[in-house]
Amino acid sequence: MEKKRILLVDDDPDFVEAVKAVVTNGGYDVDVAYDGKEALEKAAKQKPDLVILDVMMPVMNGHEACNALRADPATSQIPVILLTAVASRVSTSTYTHRDMLESKADDYIAKPVAPAELLARIKDWV
Question: What is the CATH classification number for the domain harbouring 62?
Fold first, then answer.
């Protein structure tokens, strides 16, 4: 059986490496992108089974990237989980809870997340 492929998108290299290790140890193949634009390019090319997407990123934020994934017929059916610290930073960022509710993502997980919770949520979608 072929491993499911996850595209992990976050601009924090240390966070990416930590989450990549958890997800890889959970039995998935993991590709990485460091901003929304790179995520769109990789998703179109690699057709992952799931995209885990940070919100606060340079170049193109996670909401913009998620909406672009949904708008493209080639990637519109790929499940998207937003994994972000926005909920704890609403008062200090330009992002709001309404952004989360209006997002076209399939799921939302607040950082930090326990490895077991992250793997359980991934399993829900792939």
Answer: 3.40.50.2300
